[in-house]
Amino acid sequence: MIYNTYHSMNSFDNFRQTSSPDISITVKTETAKKISLFSAITIVIGAIVGSGVFFKNIGVFKENHGNAYGIVLSWVIATVIALATAYTYGEITRAKTKTANSGLAGWSERYVGYKFSRFLKIIYGLFLYPIYIMATSIFCAEAILNCNPDWAGTESGINTSFWYVILIALVIVTVLIFLNLACKTFSNKLAKYTTLIKFIPSALVIVLGITLGCLKPENNLFIHPESFNPGSGIIDDKNGKFDFLGVLNSLPGIMFAFDSFLIIGNVAKDIKNPKKNIPLSIIISLGVSGILYLLITIGFCCSGQSQPYKLIEVLCQDNKALNTAMKIIISSLLFICILGVLNSFLIGGTGAVQTLVNEEIMVGTKTINKIFNGKPEHHKDWILLFSVFFIYFLIISIPSGILSTDQMYDGFTSVIPTFSFMIFAFVAIMSVVNRKTQRVPVSEVSYQKFQKTAAIISAIGCFGINLYGMFYQFLIRTILTPSDNSSWGLFYHNPTTLNLYQATIVFWIAAITFIGIPFLNDLLIKCTNKNYQQKLLV
Q1: Which residues, 6+ apart, have CB-to-CB distance to 454 below 8 Å?
Q2: Is residue 240 part of a domain?
Q3: What are phi and psi of 3, to 5 degrees?
Q4: Is residue 145 situated within a structural domain?
Q5: Which pTM was predicted?
Q6: CATH code: domain of residue 188
Q7: pLDDT tens by residue, 261-282
Q8: Dist CA 521 CA 123 (whole Å)
């Protein structure tokens, strides 16, 4: 997924890309249980693997001062924690949920309680997915523009009016939703094709990186870590030296590369043999993604470059035509990668809002049901998701267009994986507690070996890494170096660059919104229904 690196600050892949999480797939089919194990895997990988690993590795490289062993170790540790978290859900996902496509929120209801589950359902439907869709659509639009020969792979990024980016992003989302309204299985098919194509740029980076490392060993960071150039005139006294603190600082951003692995949870009723295929799809997808990330990182380390365009420039420096052609090809493939991520978030988002309406826990539910009375169910899901997305899109797009920057989109997504992984770990711990409390009867789940060990690793890793990253990056580091560049954004040339002080403000606003949306939803319901007595969390 496009993912966020706390120093390099992108949440998607980071966003990174993704991730984030436990969503509902509206891959509606005429017959139930149409999604095979392979299709489920492609949906999960489609949400996890984006462009962040290709562009945001620069933050990991800088934190580790170009030391290849520190860089690889960072990815290994993060992958182990992510896999441990995923392993715990092999048991958790076997529990039946009251609403088939409720995903993590549904499992939370069984293992933690209804109030906590309801809190999560509102967050996913009214914040998480709309925000991810908003930011990913912007990066998708930038990837399209980056395919232009005049802009592809420029160091400064795309240099055009940001209003064009906003308009293209809106068109992309509108077209995708229209196609899904017209064809119920469109998202499922798109997930398959985009996931397969995602392996092409990955393979290119791996092969070209290792090749360059062999042809020019002086650039190979495994051999000459001191050759790393942090860029922008940065002087690094620790250049090439192993620094465990650098490894630690890298982990929050890397963890976010895995943040969408539970997206398959909200398609439970559409999956063949869900008790078997849901946990398998989660574990296999994370395993494949983790190996892929490691190989890409090794390719970058061998070449001495931390992003594909730089790698191509060094490899094709004597052939300008080939250099340009390769950059256009890479940009086109990255567009497909991001489109796949966007598609997976749209799939998950429809399930999330579907749950809110079906359980009548969202403000305006009765009015919505009246408007769509007699219309196909999936029409309501897609149109409602678009409406929520459009509200956030307007709120963020207007100041972003005025300032001509994509950094606020990226910044808003940074808060989601931070809290998501802590929620994942909390539910994992509760699955271990359940073995004593029997809140979920033993007859419903198959207890797996090493569940307790995996849950402990997940809890220590997810809580420790994300709390450290959140307070270190958005408090301590901000106080120490408030004027440092946040480095948010992806392809765009940002004339208005947010420093750490400004980025910290954006982050905490997003954090307050993330936590506050459920309470605002309840407040609005109480204004129209005096008898409403529901409570959140407690």
Answers
A1: 84, 85, 87, 88, 428
A2: yes
A3: -130, 165
A4: yes
A5: 0.84
A6: 1.20.1740.10
A7: 777 766 666 788 877 888 888 8
A8: 10
